[in-house]
Write a structure and sequence with these properties.
Strand content of chain B: 25-35%
Distance between the termini of chain A: 42 Å
Shape of chain A: globular
Number of strands of chain B: 8
Largest sheet of chain A: 4 strands, antiparallel
Strand content of chain A: 35-45%
Radius of gyration of chain B: 21 Å
Largest interface: A-B, 34 and 31 residues
Order of helices and strands of chain A: HEEEEEEEE
Order of helices and strands of chain B: HEEEEEEEE
Structural class of chain A: mainly beta
Oligomer: heterodimer
Helix content of chain A: 10-25%
Shape of chain B: globular
Number of helices of chain B: 1
Structural class of chain B: mainly beta
Chain lengths: 128, 159
């Protein structure tokens, strides 16, 4: 008898190593990103940009914030995004930076939908 | 709108049938019926030295869910005025993190609840965006009294 493997189900009697690492990253990420060297991304309207790619760590924390003002855009794991298929966020210099946790082989794309004073986006990566 | 939900076999607990046995219980006298009485046991309390895996997963989803929305599955739901819409249902995860926000600028009031009957007096109210964690078999209904109709963008993910 074949057993269907639901990729979203987890065994109920064990907390996986991935889940442990995610919770560690969620707690530690906000405190670590400021010590990492950042890269600069120029926002371009309606063009997806690959912000980060996790090809080396169990968990990668990616931090994004504008240099000044704000910028609005879509974030997702693939380059093809639309207002209906990807969450929209606002990066504001006066607000806490956006942070996302990437598992192995996951990618983070950002597609600018509105530039509200920002000239560039500062991106840093850290592995807790 | 989703229908015909089937609970994943991993979430179904098998029913163990035991042979009937005559059990004689000792007489219980002076059973405490309120917390103020000595010996009272709260049926909803949990032993403090055990945290179940499900509780761990709910906590992980609540804390780390917003850090993973870029990797979730997103779809949009038109919300007609004053009509409840089913936007999420957890039929396969221990804890499902749901992030929702309104596409239209300005958005409006969102009434959120576990069933179709939503009202401003009895349902949770959010403005433009919210996050929720659904346990197994739980559903998320949304209604907006706002006109014109708006579109809700919903992202789901399992940590």
């Amino acid at each position: 008898m074949t057993r269907f493997h639901d990729p979203y189900a987890r065994p109920s009697d064990a907390l996986g190593e991935v889940e442990r690492r995610i919770i560690v990253a969620a707690f530690a990420g906000p405190a670590l990103y400021q010590t990492e060297i950042a890269q600069i991304i120029t926002p371009v309207l309606n063009r997806p940009v690959l912000v980060a790619s996790n090809d080396k760590a169990d968990v990668l924390v990616v931090t994004m914030q504008p240099d000044t003002g704000a910028v609005q855009g879509l974030i997702g794991g693939q380059s093809v995004m639309s207002l209906q298929s990807a969450p929209q966020i606002v990066l504001d210099v006066s607000s806490p930076p956006l942070q996302q946790i990437l598992l192995p082989r996951e990618r983070l794309y950002f597609q600018t939908t509105a530039i509200l004073g920002a000239t560039c986006i500062i991106v840093s990566e850290v592995t807790p | 709108m989703k229908s015909n939900h089937v609970l994943h076999p991993a979430l179904v607990r098998p029913v163990h049938r035991v042979p009937s046995v005559e059990v004689v219980l000792p007489a219980v006298r002076n059973q405490p019926s309120s917390p103020s009485e000595p010996g009272w046991q709260d049926p909803y309390s949990r032993p403090s030295d055990e945290v179940s895996v499900a509780e761990w997963r709910v906590m992980i989803a609540a804390i780390a869910g917003r850090f993973r929305i870029s990797q979730g599955f997103t779809r949009s739901y038109p919300l007609p005025q004053n009509r409840s819409v089913l936007v999420a249902a957890n039929d396969r995860s221990i804890a499902l993190f749901v992030h929702a926000d309104v596409i239209e600028v300005g958005g409006g009031t969102l009434l959120v609840g576990p069933d179709i009957n939503l009202s401003s007096a009895t349902s949770a109210t959010f403005m433009n965006t919210f996050d929720q964690v659904l346990l197994p078999k739980e559903r998320l209904w949304v209604r907006t009294p706002t006109a014109p109709p708006i579109t809700l963008r919903v992202t789901e993910l399992t940590i």
